[in-house]
Amino acid sequence: MTLDSDPTTEAGTLDDTASRIKQLQQELRKVVIGQDAVLDQMIIALLSSGHALLEGVPGTAKTLAVRAMALALSCDAKRVQFTPDLMPSDIVGTNVFNLQANTFDLHRGPVFTDLLLADEINRAPAKTQSALLEAMAERRCTIDGVTHQLSPFFTVFATQNPIEYEGTYPLPEAQQDRFLLKIRIDYPAEVAERELLEAFHRGDPPDALQPGTIESVCDADDLAAMRQSMTQVQIEPAIMDYVLKLCRATRNHEAILVGAGPRGSIALLTVAKARALVAGRDYVTPDDVVEMVEPVLGHRITLTAESEIGGASVREVLRDLLDAQEVPR
Question: What's this model's pTM, rounded to 2 decimal places?
Answer without folding.
Answer: 0.88
